[in-house]
Amino acid sequence: MAEERNNYQISRKDAKNCFVESLYDAFEFGKIHLAFATYDLNRPAGQRQTNNIHIYIAADEFLELCRKLNYGELRYMMQNKKKSNDQTPLYECLGGTSAEKLAKQGRSRPDGRSLSRVAKIIVGSRSDILFVADSGPGDVTEKGLIVPKFGSKPENHVAVSMAFETLSELLLLTQAHYMAWLSAQYMAKPKQNRSTGTQPQSTQNYTEPEVPMF
Questions:
Q1: d(Cα 133, Cα 38) in Å, to the nearest integer?
Q2: How far is CA 137 from CA 59, 65, 94, 154, 206, in A?
Q3: DSSP 3-state percent helix, strand, coil across the chain (nearest 5)
Q4: Residue 15 half-sphere exposure, CB side, CA atoms within 13 Å?
Q5: What is the three-class DSSP state of 10?
Q6: What is this structure's pTM?
Q7: Residue 17: what are its φ and ψ, rounded to 5°?
Q8: List of residues 6+ apart from 47 with CB closer than 8 A
């Protein structure tokens, strides 16, 4: 499964015993897929991964983050937060899988709760940025949002330390790939519709891709 995901890799950024990679396997669902992982080189080959968290960001939300990066807003926010020692996130994404969906997939949690997955971009003390992913128990709100209920003790935690320029490389290369994919879809769909007489497929029945268990 790991090798299959690597075939979809756009960019990977490494830090000490951890990394974050962007993948294009969820573009067709309108999502940007980021995979966070930690590893221990002292473990046997094939058993070195210690944490693994998959984050799916809505494409429009991701493009808005890239807009802030392109126009200097993100760097400006980072500099201000560093000056004031503000640890609130520059960016935060809440997601996960509901308890109902986990049950249908045969992956129910022992506590019966939903699986919350959170990604944050925060300023670092020894580097510009920490790109953080956490997962653990969560609850579904009335609006369908899965909010974390693990406080400061997530079940899985990955924090990738990086320079601001490294974050920029990850986000902008992923943006370029998504825009190229989107352009290809627009080029291909009219030809398909003319030959088959079909209408473009609705996105209303989107289902989040199943996240592999590790």
A1: 11
A2: 25, 26, 13, 8, 23
A3: 35, 35, 35
A4: 22
A5: strand
A6: 0.84
A7: 60, 30
A8: none
pLDDT at 203 over 50: no
Helix axis angle for 73-84 and 59-70, nearest 10°, is 80
Is 25 a residue whose pLDDT tops 60? yes
Structure tokens at 144: 């369908």
Residues 121, 129: contact at Cβ < 8 Å?
Answer: yes
CB 19 within 8 A of CB 5: no
Q: How confident is the model at residue 185 (pLDDT cuts 50, 70, 90)?
A: very high
User: Which 8-state DSSP code applies to residue 62?
Assistant: H
Beta strands at 129-140 and 91-97: parallel, antiparallel or unpaired: unpaired
Vertex 68, ends 22 and 13: CA angle to 5°? 25
**What is the distance between the alpha carbons of residues 122 and 190, in angstroms, rounded to a whole number?**
42
Instruction: Quote the radius of gyration of the chain (alpha carbons, Å).
Output: 18
> Phi and psi at residue 5, in whole multiples of 5°?
-65, -40
CB burial of residue 209 (10 Å; 0-12, 13-18, 19+): middle
**C-alpha distance across the termini of the chain, in Å:** 10
The helix/strand/coil state of 127 is coil
Q: Can you give the length of the chain in residues?
A: 214
Question: CA of 80: how far to CAs of 65, 83, 90, 99, in Å?
Answer: 17, 5, 11, 39
Structure tokens at 185: 């879809």
